[in-house]
Here is the input.
Amino acid sequence: MPKIPDTTVAAVQRVGLRLSASERVSWLLDFAQADMKEAEEADAVALSQEVLAFAIASGGRISTEKGQLSLAEIDRSLALVRQGLSDLKADGPWILRTKSADLSFMTTRSAGQRVSGTLERVFLWAAHSLVSAEIASLGFCGHCGRAFVMNRASQRYCKTTCAQALYNQRYTESPSIGAGCGSSCSGA
Here is the structure.
């Protein structure tokens, strides 16, 4: 049996089977924030391994010999995930379109549903399926607009710094205490 590279094991630990659904959504949202403009080939290899771990942990089977994405394929996947999240933020649907040859679906009594195809397409299917299943815990920050996993249903901000920034903005825009109260103020 071939030895699994340490970098692949690390990718599986960051993205794989032992994570909860909300932890996997958090990884996906972090992935969507990645900036590939300055990325080097080593970055693409590491991110591709995480994409592979994410897809396999979702039950996908990769049907090609190539178990790695190029920078262009990662960038294309990023754009599609970002577009899907943007559509959801605008209260629209995230529609995943694919050529029928890119993905195949199979359901069996023993294994349940299985999906196979290229790494890029299986990853996009896994991302779409996970977001669909966890849509109730997905929020968009009321300050910066960033997608985040809500800890409670009423959470409106991704971080306390965003909540504080909005509070500070409202406080500085509100009239000063005592201003405009007319002759009823006794401290004049």
In short: The chain has six helices and five strands.
